[in-house]
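Same chain as my last thread, 340 residues:
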Amino acid sequence: MREAMFIKKNAEKWKTYQHQQTENPDETAERFVTLIDDLSYAKTFYPKSKATRWINGITASIYQSIYRNKKEKYSRIFQFWKFELPLLFRKYHAVFLFTTVIFILFVSIGYFSSVNDPSFVRGVLGDAYVDKTEDMIANGDPFGIYSKESPFNMFVQIAFNNIGVALKTFLGGFTLGIFTLMAMWGNGIMLGSFQYLFFSHGMGLEYVLVVWIHGTIEISSIIIAGTAGFILANGILFPGTYSRIISFKRSVKDAAKILICLIPFFITAAFLESYITRLMSQTYEKGQQAGIPVWSSVLILAGSLALIIWYFVILPIKLNRRGFFIKNDGIVSRLNETNA
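reply #2:
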């Protein structure tokens, strides 16, 4: 076939491939295979032709498009954790602050109510639990509850329980935040009463060093789950410039992302409670140094707190100040890149 005839036969197809991109992966693959055939033919019979260079350019463009999309699939998770989630959380820092403040308030109510009325703690935790805990304290094994069951069984039960609590707190947002507030109230009052139970027996420091090994991440995650619930409620009650249905859909999407990100944190907290807290509890068993040293507890506690503060507070602020933001299509961009 003469070169002129070859070009006339395929020119319209090449122009279409060059100027009309497709999002259909099957069509992209078909175009790529077709161009490879045309390029092989052109290189065989017209190796120095401009048409050959033209086909080669279109083929290379489609190849780069395929490669770039493939690479994005693998980098999507990395981008989500490094940029998208922190930037999303930065958007709701005010809701996070509100949730944290009310939870601390509820914990304080639980603690000081127990101080003023010792029977209050029994009303919250139950007589059986309080009696059992006080017996263990009297017998020199204050945290024996953490060593009474198989570590793996504890891990599975605690992980599912924490995820269930977070899910209920999140779903409470669909009730305009009423059930979310109730969940925060219940957890806060229980935590405050539980802390009083140990502080009232002069074991405040021991309680912090043992229970807050896992409690730092666990309680922080519950607060963040509450934040997700209030984000839902906020999208319903305060749509802003959006219609209420669009605002609701956006808030559901954002809150769900925040909730999903908590799963590895809850699993980490469950692991710490089932294995590390168990070892630390043995340190105070009958006054014997049988568990892990105190400094390791301080290190884990401080590291957990630093992780939560850095990832959910400091990193989002830093990324925002550096000009990163999430566009309407969900892609992370930067101001100077947009201006360029």
